[in-house]
Amino acid sequence: MEYEMVVLVHKAEKGLYFITTMSVPAPSAIPTSHATNANAASGMAVQDECKLKFQELKAKRTHRFIVFKIEQQQIVVEKVGGSAESYDDFQASLPADECRYAVYDFDFVTDENCQKSKIFFIACND
């Protein structure tokens, strides 16, 4: 089964963040019937814009980050960060006292001097 890394960011006092990571089955490894049932069981709908913006971030790399929020039993896009925006811009877009979910496209250079990118899924709770 294929797995991907999920990063959970928990905000603490005085602007400190605790980071937890875990491996979960990749969406492609979960049968469609299970994914659909899980969504139906939660009663939470995902707006099409969420999926579209994520595909743009993943395939076209037109966004640095996407912040999602829950609004009236739906997951909606709250903010989209342009490709030139920084991690500081991303942090500034997160409210201090409300739960948000986000996707962040992190660019880095390996020890072998290769340009790489990883997409992090982040849950920020108050």
UniProtKB/TrEMBL annotation:
Listed name of the protein: ADF-H domain-containing protein
Any one cellular-component term (Gene Ontology): actin cytoskeleton
PROSITE patterns, A to Z: ADF_H (PS51263)
Keyword presence, rRNA processing: no
Source species of the chain: Lupinus luteus (European yellow lupine)
Keyword Acyltransferase part of the UniProt annotation: no
Biological processes annotated in GO: actin filament depolymerization
Family, similarity comment: Belongs to the actin-binding proteins ADF family.
Record keywords: Actin-binding
ADF-H domain boundaries: 41-126
SMART domains: ADF
GO molecular function terms noted in the UniProt entry: actin binding
Pfam families given in the database record: Cofilin_ADF (PF00241)
